[in-house]
Amino acid sequence: MAESQFTIMVVDDHPMWRDAVARDLESAGFVVAATAEGVETARRRAAAVQPQVVLMDMQLPDGNGADATAAVLAASPETRVLVLSASSERDDVLDAVKAGASGYLVKSASVEELVDAVRATADGQAVFTPGLAGLVLGEYRRMSNTPKDDGPELPKLTERETEVLRFVAKGLSAKQIATKLSLSHRTVENHVQATLRKLQLANRVELTRYAIEQGLE
Prior knowledge:
52% helix, five-stranded parallel β-sheet, 10 helices, Rossmann fold, Arc Repressor Mutant, subunit A, two-stranded antiparallel ribbon, globular, alpha/beta
């Protein structure tokens, strides 16, 4: 997919920062279809624009980024939310992910890191500032250790699909996985798509959560 097809919305209550991020993304070839300064404006504009990716601040005047993430996804279910916040506090990170955010980047990230993160988020990957991924993994591991009722038998994955899934859970891209396993990028993507079909999952974010819940990380 060409980057010009990506539609982005930037949500931040600081106009200068919001406009600067929008300019950086437009310079990289993305289409910034909307900006918003709070929860309610984000919800309304997401409903109107249906952006592919929303960059979300955590501190907003009429709520927080978790509230806004939930509101945006309710208004535009196909949107993926990438938090871009000055805060790296545990509760902020976990609240955002639990609300449906696909990733979490701190504002100290470079423009190049931001652009790469937007591309990855649009591609369905979970993107986290180094150090925060471990926090989220730990929370999912804790949740997966909570006793659950016996459910239906899990689908059988091949040895190679399971191997690829382990790397997906670690946050590696298809290109990185291909290098590690000496496979082609297309072969890795085929394994990922086959696994998604077997597990009846929608994207890599859900696949990562499944892998963690099964202890495959």
